[in-house]
Amino acid sequence: MRSFDLPGDKSISHRALILAAVSAGRARIRGVLPSADVASTAGVLTALGVAVPPLDPTEMVISGVGLRGLSAPQIDLDCGNSGTTARLLAGLLAGAGLPARLIGDTSLSARPMRRVAEPLRAMGADVTTSASGGLPMTLGSRALHALTWRSEVPSAQVKSALLLAGLMAGVHVAVDEPVPTRDHTERMLRAAGVDVHLEGTEVVLEPKDRIALDTIEIPGDCSSAAFLLGLALLGGSPALALRGVGVNPGRTGAIEALRRMGASIRCEAERVFGEEPVATLIAEPSVLRGITIGGAEIPALIDELPLLACVAARAEGETRVSGAGELRVKESDRIRAVVENLRAIGAEAEECSDGFVVRGSDRPLHGTVRTHGDHRIAMAFGILGALPGNAITIDDPSCVRVSWPTFWDVLRDAT
Length: 415
Ligand code: S3P
Prior knowledge:
The protein is built from 13 helices and 21 strands. It has helices spanning 10-21, 36-47, 83-96, 106-109, 114-122, 156-169, 184-191, 222-233, 253-260, 305-312, 334-344, 375-385, 407-414; strands at 2-5, 24-30, 60-65, 77-78, 100-103, 127-128, 137-139, 147-150, 173-176, 196-199, 202-205, 215-217, 240-246, 264-273, 276-284, 292-293, 318-321, 348-352, 355-359, 366-369, 391-394. The protein has a four-stranded mixed sheet. Strand 14 and strand 15 (276-284) form a beta hairpin. Helix 2 (36-47) runs parallel beside helix 3 (83-96) and helix 10 runs parallel beside helix 12 (375-385). The longest helix has 14 residues, at 83-96. The model has no long low-confidence stretch (mean pLDDT 97). Shikimate-3-phosphate binds at residues 11, 84, 155-157, 160, 182, 302-303.
């Protein structure tokens, strides 16, 4: 059996840099993901006066400037392609009362920012988005007050932005989530000494004057692991063991869905790594059948739906996904991109307003995939392309730099 270590978790890497930047004293970060998205967060923090060393997965040390120590930026803050950077830092900046302007690439500029601007305004912040509700987003300097907010869309980015705003402004925040989302921010805040707890469906943060972090251990990225699981399940490689993968329940929906499809995925060596549960995931070639995916399970597998669609193209029968309208406002319109590309390579798929239907087959798949610059589209179809008998060209393979710069090398090693 072949074993692989996964790159550091992207969501947790952003949070580690942000919280280390505003903590008191030095924080050690181990396992950071050296990717373009995380570099965007590092770049913005640098523009706020934090000395951020180069992204080094072995270890990087950040000397935090404290909750009141950030400086007003002299330049536009470039979030690149990263929604997590734009939304989390909007909350941080609003809470710090620092005037700033957040910008991004074409894809990010078109993504919805009102979902974060509106609750920040409800806290008293002076925030404007572009006319279409995207970037550029400008933040003025105003003191914030306490907030109780019910999110319309389940979004860990919005929840995290509001918790960071409350932390920086020193005010009480309660976020009521329609469906629970990944809780990495809450776990890391607790490790930093903040009282963040659940009251029913509300995530509540109590104000605090200072935070301190010692060592942050970042597990392997569960969303990246999903691509290699797909490869092994579809027989593109022998059985694979993926070590040190984060298995936070807010992230493991795809593993549950794959198991429902008949996948053999074992979880071994489970332990707690820093604040997060990790495990070795072992996947073996499996006979898969179509399933229905929807409702409350969507947030825990939202980023894995392109991969699940590609796996479904090789399963017996039909896979139906609904309740996933959020896919239309990710790095690309992932519902359209998945369906158009599956059809372009000879698979059967249909678009729905909030999901898609894929009918599996074992016929050879060939053609060119248009990624629309979306890393997860490139990697999901890269897995299908690595299966014997398929011949698939990806139009922009380099877009994987956003979350997994060495993906194509690892894929070659794994097959
Ligand atoms: C993320 C939350 C999710 C996810 C994204 C990363 C995060 O987005 O899709 O890739 O790090 O908080 P939403 O908050 O928009 O659901």
